[in-house]
Every structure is written in C-alpha cells, then in structure tokens.
User: Fold these one by one.
Assistant:
Number 1:
Amino acid sequence: MIQKAIDTIKRADYLLITAGAGMGVDSGLPDFRGAEGFWRAYPVAKMLGLRFEELANPRWFFENPRLAWAFYGHRLHLYRDTRPHEGFYKLLEIAKSKKDYFVFTSNVDGQFQKAGFDERKIEEVHGSIHYLQCSQPCNERIWSADNAKVEIDMQRFLAKEPLPHCPDCGAVARPNILMFGDFGWISKRQKRQREHFESFLNRAKNLVVIEFGAGTAVPTVRMMSEFVARRFNAPLIRVNPREPEGADIELAMGAKEAIEQIAKVLKGS
C-alpha cells in the first residue's frame, strides 16, 4: 500500500496536505485522544472533572481567567518550545517538488510554519495559539502572541497575574482559536487563509490529497479531505494508525513513519 501511495504522489502535479492533531504526536505533542488522553496531559483537569471540550471553552475567560490561561498559557509555551519532527521537513521537500502545494489543518500549534512551510499556503481552520484577540471582543483586532508570557502555578493550575490583556479596552485577552461553544472568535485571519486555499484549488490540476492524523471525534479535517477528493476527482491518501478507513489509499501508521518511507523512495527515484 505504501508503494501505491508513492506512485500516486509521484504522478501528481499539485499536493494538498491536510492534518489533524496526530501530525504532531511524533514531535512529542499531545493529541488529547479521548478523556483519558487529555487527562494524562493535564491531570489537574481530571481532578476538576473537566474534559478537553469543557476546558477549551471561552466561558473560562470570564468565569475563571486564571484557569483559562493556565491551560492556554501552558499550550502556548509548549508549542513555542517544540521542534517539528523530521517528517515535517521531508514533507516540505516533497511539497516543493510539485507545481504548488497547500496545507489545511485543524492544528493551532504553528508547527507547519516553524518547519518552513509558506505562511500564505496554510489554512488554520481553528485559528492559531500564536495570535491573540480580546475576550469580549471589543473590536476585530488580532495581534501576535510573541510578547505574551504566562507564568503558571502548576500545583494549583492557575496562571499568575498579570494575564495577557486587550491593548484597546484592557479586558482579558484570549488566543485567536475557535473553541467549543465559541461565539466570540474573530475569524478574519482564517477567512483570508480560506481565500488563499480557494485560489489554490482553482489552479490545481492533477491533484493528490494526503491526510495525516485526522480523527473522527472532531472530523473537520477528514470532511475537507473527502470533499476536495470528490470535487476534484483526486486520490485521497489517509495516514492514521487507528482510523485509516474511508480513503483510496489507507496507511495505518504514524505521520513521521509514513513521510519518511515515502520521502526515501521519492528521493531515490
């Protein structure tokens, strides 16, 4: 099956990469798979009886902003400090060998940009932790989180003051991420990215879609992969160690392993 994937990629002129949380697992990032997986990463959340979808909710920026920023501040520093695994760099080499490429991801970690993928060729459909917005929100402003530093009392799992704040109204800031039950997310950055994505699709001929680590619990990425594959009559390669079903080519393995095997053969051909 891996050889079929290699042959399919080799024949294509355009490459669409779609990626979920499983893409970052080989970098040491948690994928929050199920409540137990989330609680292993955040044992305090288990003590509080909060699942990922309950903690990843904008309500905490109003009800308990120090708890909200303990969670998102820890993730912000984790993603800043994490180096993308080698698969990212090998995948970029493959992408650059094509006429053009694009990345569609539900990940908010910025790992594709850190590995050198062109910012203009990425849609982060759920936003990015590396940008902030007002929690109210008082306006449509989005700004870089580069200067945000969040100290956390890990024993109590509470962020220390001062918390990031809105430069316009002084309210608590929040990541520019689409959370669960979120009616305050400012989506203008993602909408610009979608325009770039649609422009790519309008140009793409002889396209292949390769999906990494996208599960069924939040099926945003899988749905986009399948939609594009149908619309453009493009083959879909699905790389997923647990849920590879439903694609033209199903690879039941992790992202890094699959990319390394594919890249090795392509480089030698």
Number 2:
Amino acid sequence: MRAVTYDRYGGPEVMSLVEVPVPEPGEGQVRIRNRAAGLNPYDWHIYRADPALARTFSGWRTPGERVLGADVAGVVDAVGPGVIEFAVGDCVYGEIGFGACGDYTVAKSAGLARKPQSLSFTEAAAVPMAALTALQGLEAGRVSEGSRVLVIGASGGVGHMAVQLARVLRAARVVAVCSGRNASWVAELGADRVIDYTRERVEDCNEQFDVIVDLVATSTFRALAPLLDANGSYVLLGGIGGGKILGPLGGILRAQAVGLVKRRRVVQMTAKVLASDLTRIAAWIDDGRVRPVLDTVFPLERYRDALDLLEGGHVAGKVVVEVA
C-alpha cells in the first residue's frame, strides 16, 4: 500500500510517498480503506515539532515512523477482535491522530462514527477534528439558547464550524471575524455580522457577548475583555505564533492571568475524540444545519502542495487529500 510517511521532524521535505505493509487490526480496532484525509494545523505542528512542546507527546528526539493525516473518511475493510460497532463495508469517518494519508489505516473503533450520508468521502474527511473542537469548545463556553457568540478566525477549519454549531446550539446572535474576501460565505453559514479584520478592529465592534471563541489570539484577552459579559466565557482554541518553545501556551497562560484579575471565565481545552459527538455532528450535517467548506482538494501524490497551502495560514475552510 502507498502511504505518506516521515520519521524525523521537519517540513514536507522530510516526507515520502512510499510502499509500506498493509496493517492488520488489533483488539478494538478496524482497518479502513481510506478514501480521503483531512489536513489540520495540528498535522504541521506535529511533524515540524513547532512548538517544541509538541515533542512531549509525539517523541522528544524523533516522532517514530508516522503516516501523515489525522482526519479520515473511508470504508471498513477488516474488523479486529472485540469490535461490535462496525462491520466490513461500513462507511466511517473520524479523527485518528495519524495514518489517513495512506491506502489503509487501522484505528480504534471507539473514535469513529458512521459517515454523514449526505456527504462524499472527500467532504466527510474535512469534518472530524474541526467540528469536534468547535462543538466541545462552544459547549465548554456554555453556549445555549439566547447566547451572543463572537467567533474570531471564523473562516478557518474550526472557525467556520463554530459559526454553524453556535446556531445549532441556539445562539441568538453570532458575530464572525475574518478577512473581507471570506465575508460573504461566512455570512451564508449563519453569521449575523461579519467583521473584516483588515478594515475594522474587533475591539471597536460596540457589542457584548456571552461567549468569545478565539482561534487566532491576535488580540490579547486584556483587549477583548470589555466585550465579554460579566458572566461570559472566553474560549481560547488556538493561536498564531507564540514562540518556538511554548507556542500558544504562553498566550493561554496570560489570558488566564487576566481572567483572574478581571474576574472573567477563561476556558482552554483540547477536544476529545468522542464517537457520540461525531454521531451528533453527522446528524446535523444530514439535517442540513452544518456543512464543511473545502478550500482545495489534492490527490495523494500532491501531498506536498497540500501541506504548503496548509502552512500558509490563509486556508478558507479545509484542505483535503483524496487517497483513492
């Protein structure tokens, strides 16, 4: 089978599309015939070890031999011992950590769900990590009926899901922050107002919110705090820059310190891979309430072009690699 592999930290140049053995599923695992892989900033943070803190869970000296790609959509090809949720032939999608950019992969069945019926495999591969992060972030921020929600970084993978899922969770008002070139389609996803950060400072928007979801951390929480209701939540789910050692962690710690001083709730969380949440998301997709937006789709052979686009930082929606 073909797979995009790497065994040392670096950029796309350390990867190769090579032939490797077809994996066999173990206890609680299924083998998936991959049809498409969704790429996320997570992927390049891991393979570049940027920030260095990423090495603490991916391997301090080397990452070991890895196959690129955390998000997958495909067909169950074999079932390991103890698996009762799926059978050969089931169409599934999920977040698996590594292994999506190959013809086959094995994954724990507990982290997979049935693919949304209304989506192609290519579209489904764009969903898992982004939608899980957005949904769990919104729920950790206590979004509920009547909430006023601000999404900063609304045209990215997580951001465009957050705009839609805030509506699913019955937010009364959703304000999105992105560049003007993406404003029209972000508005179509359900944003009541779109702030073009190239022309207007979000700090000057003259609104208050119950939940602020920040995907970029280009404004400090100190500057954003006046926009947050006294009982509201600032949910920090990502950040641009932040240094080679700690990355976004430095901004998270500063935000938490400001939250203590200003008595505002600051939420930082890492999404969990829950089949129950993937099933909920699939239902909302099939109901027409949520849809993934794809920036560019590449064939597996052009994985380096896909990664170059991903690392450029201006992806509108998601980048997907078609495997089969």
Number 3:
Amino acid sequence: MLLAIDIGNTNIHAGVFEEDILCSSFFFNCAEFHLLKENLVKALSGHLVKKQVPAAVVSSVNPKAECFVLDQIKELLLVKPERIGTDIPVPLAVLVDQPEKVGADRLLNALAVYERVHDSTIIIDAGTAITVDVINNHGAFTGGIIAPGMEISSRALQSYTALLPKVSITKPKTILGKNTHEAISSGIYWGTIGMIKQYLELLFLELNDKPVIVATGGDAHILAKEIPGITSVIPALTLEGIKLAYKISREKAKK
C-alpha cells in the first residue's frame, strides 16, 4: 500500500494505491493546508485502523507547501515520507542541457506515460503552467515547452492593467466578445487552444513524427474537447509516476 502525494503550484493531489491500483484520490488548493489531515483520514479510513500505511512518497514543485505536508504525514501516519528526487530517483534518461532542473512532475508524467504507451509520446500538462513534453520511443525525456496556463493569464491581465477584471475562463459562445468579460475569456480560451495546436504542429515538423498525445492537469478536459489529436486524458498521471518510481526503487533495493 502506498500514499502518493503530488504538490503543485496551486493544488495538492493525493492518492492511495493498493497492488498498483489507485483506490482513492483527492485534491485541494495549496492554500487550504488545514484540509490535508481531514482528507487523509477520509482517504485512509479503515487502513488507519486495520493495517499500517507502510509508505508515503511526495513529489513537489512547491517548497512552502511541501514542508507542511511532510510534517502532517509524519504526525498522522507515523512514517517518514520519502521524496521524489531526494530519496527516490525518477528512473529515465533526461536528454536536456540541465537534467537536474526539470520539474519532478514532468519526469514522473513521462515515466508513467511510457509505461502505458511504450512509444514516442507528447504529454500536455494543463495546470497553473502548461507544459508540453516529448518522450521518445525509448522512453527518454527529450525536452519540452512551458507556457502560462489559463488561470495565470487571467490573473496577469488583472494585475498588470488598471481596469481589466479577473475572469473565470469558460468557453465563449462566440469568438467576438461583446463586453470586457467576454473579450478576455475569448482571448485566453482560444489563445490557449491556438497556442497548443501551434506547438503540436511545430513539434511534428521538428520530430518528423506524430507521437501519441495525452493530456493531464486541471484544464486537460478543455483541451481534449478542442484538440482532436489528444487521444486520452489521464487525471492521475503524476500519481501513477510516483507509484512507478517508488516500485522500481524498491525492486532495485531488493537486488
């Protein structure tokens, strides 16, 4: 049994695996630290009474939230959580200039996708930031693209202009906005879709290949509706990567 926790810039996503199967999962905003213990108790109800939770593994791109999460896990489960990158490596080749600076979540996504597809793949992770990463047919991470997500774009317009409001982005009824709210929503929504489509077109040309395309992250379902090339949406992809990295690490330790 394994508790896997992915700490992002905005949300914390956690899942409980038993025999490689994701039994339960939950997520909440990083600002709502007080919800962690409550959600863990719900997700692990029964397990906390009937059996020990033997392992917890954390992946994080948010140091402030990470410290709190590690302390809460120790207090609740009485186990020392292991950290991706520090205690557990992500076992795949990283063919970029500075491999150590690639976000753990991007590498875990790559590990999990290759386990599923066993072929060249493009991963679109649409969260606070949007990443578009490429895995070759040998399972190596070969690089990617990082851009602002829809939420960041909306906040930026509000923060760096005098009069524009922050807008919750939804699909506009028409491309032509008839008021400020509609105009911002249209610009960010269709701008993001167009941006991703252009990335994919340029990647196909550069790679001279059309890899499988999968999506994950909070806005993945939006992209999947608008971009036909996306073959599947995998919400718990990073958690799958955490589980796989942990499993491979334990198997190597036994040898």
